[in-house]
Write a structure and sequence with these properties.
The chain is α+β, with helices and mostly antiparallel strands. It contains 19 helices and eleven strands. α13 runs antiparallel to α14. The structure holds flavin-adenine dinucleotide. The site of flavin-adenine dinucleotide (FAD) has 19 residues, from β3, β5 and α12.
């Protein structure tokens, strides 16, 4: 069975679970009708199935390579990328004034997830451009926007994001790339950047790098960082890709997975760049790009998980092994209780993560359409959860996918292991999942827990309101929201940030567990309303009865503070 984009699931979640109808009722998105939404999902799904999915294995087996300083992408990637660009999929949510479709982020999010499931290593490329488009829309001058946005949105030019340096990974403030004014409004950018995704390619006319660098005399740390746009080819007087700039790809990394995506070491030698945003306002501008990219990376995890799930399901429906204890089964390993547990876990986790991601996108859309601070706060609190839970879910699901395959799971020809290898980095790039948890329990609770409380209140009152429809599930979700609220209040009450950070990861996981249960409950109620007792109700039961209880253990862990962690001295970690 080849990959089939989960179009129906996205449509169901948008229409029944995450309040997308509210987005389409706003003036800004009033043209996004139900029919248009369905058409977008269906057409994107078709490209995923027919054009992108066949590239998945090729990218793994025929990695991107550096040939005499020129990046060569895997066979077929140029055609795959052109299909994405020509379909307008880079600019689904970009400004129509520059050629974008101006559609909700909820649709971009659904499309990105499906494309990640089809071919993750290629999908990284348009995702980088999308982040750059958003940063330029918000922070670039009119002149820069006029030249670059139409090219990036049409996909003729690609965008990248250059933060990392050897000594500056999670600590971006340690970067040393410098930018000196040329006296004509441009800057000379010099330094080395590492791990740059799609640092170059052989299919776009130009590659535009957003580079974080330091101006002369700028203070140390993140405060002194500015953002520069540094194209591979300088635009000529007609705004077309012209003379080569002073930059090059030095090497490509040999990675665990994601082989189709060239991860470059970039060298800038006095390359011409333009300041984006304010001097020393680089982090603010970069955060625009990063928030977008964090949602995008979260759904990369979910997409890869979906691909792994579909492959595992196909195997479980074919592989015969042993006699099952059930009657009238399928006659294959799907009849074994443990295999069914694995498949149900994969499917239920993916539904939870997908719903959380689409809820975050809806909050982003509502914030843009209404300008209301509450929606912005909702999107802000959900973003690190989507990034970390989406990618952790992808990793977990892909790993279970290998297990479902048995020995064939580690034989590369099946492609099951590729999902596991490809998705692994999603928990690391775009801010590691540890950093995401610190963002959640640090910055995102700085409002005293107001935004988190509003979300918990929403879950709780919903559970209360459906007690008559799904009593047991509603009761379990209601109780879980109370436990989560206690955990959140404990976090807010900690003045010692190390105590918060020590429990950040389990707190984020517990928050996601409860959110996932809430969205499963909504799905079950929607299906009940349609007169059904089908797959969504059964899946919700599985998630709420079996997976949701983990939140209690996670919150116990989250509330344990840092003392016992640091009671272990560095010397106690030695080999004994
Ligand atoms: C395939 C790939 C593609 C990438 N693409 C890009 C790209 O396009 N552009 C770009 O700029 N970068 C890119 N990166 C870099 C990526 O963003 C970094 O790898 C990531 O931010 C982590 O930085 P690091 O590797 O230096 O790890 P480190 O920062 O050294 O982290 C090591 C460990 O320490 C933890 N840690 C570090 N600091 C803290 C802290 N303060 N508190 C708690 N824990 C901490 C981390 O969570 C992690 O577990 C890419 C990386 C890879 C592997």
């Amino acid at each position: 069975m080849s990959f089939r984009a989960p179009v129906t699931d996205h449509g169901f979640i948008l229409n029944n679970v995450v309040g997308y109808d509210e987005v389409t009722r706003t003036e800004r998105f009033s043209e996004t009708t139900e029919d248009l939404t369905a058409a977008i999902l269906t057409e994107a799904g078709r490209i995923c199935d027919d054009v992108l999915a066949p590239l998945q294995r090729i990218g793994d087996e025929d990695p991107a390579r550096l040939d005499n300083g020129v990046v060569r992408t895997p066979e077929g990637f140029a055609e795959g990328y052109n299909a994405i660009a020509e379909g307008g999929w880079v600019g689904v949510s970009a400004d129509p004034a520059h050629g974008g479709m101006g559609l909700p982020m909820a649709l971009t999010t659904a499309v990105n997830e499906m494309m990640s499931g089809a071919c993750l290593s290629l999908q990284v490329c348009p995702l980088m451009s999308q982040g750059q488009i958003e940063a330029l829309e918000h922070h670039a001058s009119e002149e820069i926007r006029a030249v670059y946005l139409p090219k990036l949105i049409s996909g003729k030019w690609c965008g990248t994001m250059n933060l990392s340096e050897p000594q500056a990974g999670s600590d971006v403030g340690a970067l040393s790339t410098r930018a000196e004014p040329n006296g004509d409004g441009t800057y000379a950018v010099t330094g080395q950047k590492i791990y740059i995704s799609w640092g170059d390619n052989d299919f776009s006319e130009n590659v535009c790098h957003l580079v974080l660098a330091r101006l002369p005399g700028a203070p140390a740390g993140t405060k002194g960082i500015s953002l520069f746009l540094v194209p591979k080819r300088l635009p000529d007087e007609n705004g077309e890709a012209g003379a080569a700039n002073s930059l090059q790809v030095v090497s490509l990394e040999h990675k665990l997975g994601l082989h189709g995506s060239p991860t470059a070491v970039m060298q800038y030698d006095g390359a011409t760049g333009w300041l984006i945003g304010e001097e020393q306002g680089g982090m603010a501008a970069m955060f625009t790009m990063m928030n977008n990219a964090r949602l995008g990376v979260g759904v990369q995890g979910i997409g890869a998980g979906e691909g792994a799930y579909q492959k595992a399901l196909a195997h479980a429906l074919e592989r015969k092994q042993g006699r099952s204890l059930i009657e009238n089964g399928n006659g294959t390993i799907i009849d074994h209780a443990d295999v069914r547990r694995m498949l149900a876990t994969m499917r239920a986790e993916l539904f939870a993560a997908r719903s959380i991601a689409l809820a975050c996108a809806v909050a982003t859309d509502m914030s843009r359409a209404t300008g209301e601070a509450d929606w912005a706060a909702r999107a802000a609190i959900l973003t690190p959860i989507v990034k970390a839970f989406g990618t952790d879910t992808g990793i977990k699901v892909a790993e279970i996918g290998v297990q479902v395959h048995g020995g064939m799971g580690v034989v590369e020809e099946t492609g099951a292991a590729q999902f596991s290898r490809d998705v692994r980095v999603t928990a690391i790039y775009e801010g590691t999942n540890g950093i995401q948890s610190m963002d959640l329990v640090g910055r995102k609770l700085m409002d005293g827990g107001e935004a988190a409380s509003a979300l918990i209140d929403e879950m709780q009152s919903y559970a209360e309101s459906v007690r008559g429809t799904r009593p047991r599930m509603a009761e379990l979700v209601w109780t879980a929201t109370e436990t989560l609220r206690e955990g959140m209040e404990w976090m807010v009450s900690q003045k010692d940030m190390n105590a918060r950070f020590a429990g950040g990861v389990p707190f984020l996981k517990a928050f996601a567990r409860v959110l996932g249960a809430y969205y499963h409950l909504r799905a079950a109620v929607a299906e009940t309303a349609e007169g059904g007792e089908g797959a969504r109700v059964k899946l919700a039961r599985f998630y709420i009865y079996r997976l949701l209880p983990e939140h209690e253990a996670l919150l116990t862990h989250a509330k344990s503070g840092a003392e016992d962690l640091f009671a272990l001295g560095v010397e106690d970690f030695g080999v004994s």
